[in-house]
């Protein structure tokens, strides 16, 4: 059984004003696959994770993680430091 891959895909996509459809077309996936990934119902392949990261110009670890991401407000405000 594979571990859940956590992601910030919906946040980054909304921030950059990119639709699921346009992201899916750019990375060669179905738009529903993007939704499944965002909801944590599907883990992206390494190939797909790398394509998504390249599309946004971000390191893969900025978008995907095996550990849950801290809320962005905590990171920005410096609360709950580990």
Write a structural description:
- The protein contains 6 helices and 2 strands.
- The longest helix is centred in the middle third of the chain and has 11 residues, at 46-56.
- The protein has a two-stranded antiparallel ribbon.
- It is mostly helical and 82 residues long.
- It has helices at residues 9-15, 20-27, 31-38, 46-56, 60-63, 72-77, and strands at residues 6-7, 64-65.
- Helix 2 packs across helix 3.
- The mean pLDDT is 91.
What order do the strands of the largest sheet run in, or round the barrel if closed? 1-2
Shape: globular
Alpha carbon gap, first and last residue: 29 Å
Strand content: under 5%
Briefly, what is this?
This protein is mostly helical.
Which descriptors apply to this entry?
82 residues; mainly alpha; two-stranded antiparallel sheet; 6 helices; globular
């Amino acid at each position: 059984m594979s571990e859940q891959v956590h992601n910030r895909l919906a946040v980054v996509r909304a921030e950059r004003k990119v639709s699921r459809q346009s992201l899916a077309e750019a990375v060669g996936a179905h738009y529903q696959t993007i939704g499944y990934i965002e909801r944590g119902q599907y883990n992206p392949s390494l190939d797909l994770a790398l394509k998504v990261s390249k599309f946004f110009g971000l390191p893969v670890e900025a978008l995907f993680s095996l550990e849950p991401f801290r809320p962005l407000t905590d990171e920005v405000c410096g609360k709950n430091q580990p």
